[in-house]
Amino acid sequence: MNTHFKSYYPYASPFDPCQPVTEKTYSTPPHLYMSFQPPNLPQFSPLEALKAGTLWKDFYDPWYNSFEKAKRGGEI
């Protein structure tokens, strides 16, 4: 099973004067996990498609940053 959120652990130098960020996360778009576009995918209405940035619901990614995710309680 693929997840749209990945994380990695950057190197933290012992000589860095700032508090290190131990884990960084990023989002990958849903179209990376489809090898082709299947026919008859569900579509947004034209107004919803303009707001979402895509016509097809399967390609929609809400793309929350880490602060928004914390405010929403981890809702994805």
Q: What does this protein look like?
A:
This is Spore coat protein CotJA. With 76 residues, this protein is an alpha+beta fold. The chain has a domain at 41-76. It is built from two helices and two strands. The chain has helices at residues 46-52, 66-71, and strands at 5-8, 24-27. The protein has a two-stranded antiparallel ribbon with strand order 1-2. The mean pLDDT is 82.
Alpha plus pi helix count? 2
Number of DSSP-assigned strands: 2
Quaternary state, please?
single chain
The arrangement of helices and strands along the chain is EEHH
User: Distance N terminus to C terminus?
Assistant: 16 Å
Biggest sheet features? 2 strands, antiparallel
C-alpha-based Rg, rounded: 17 Å
Strand content: 5-15%
Lateral strand order in the biggest sheet: 1-2
Shape: elongated
Structural class: alpha+beta
Which stretches are poorly predicted, pLDDT < 50 over at least 5 residues? none
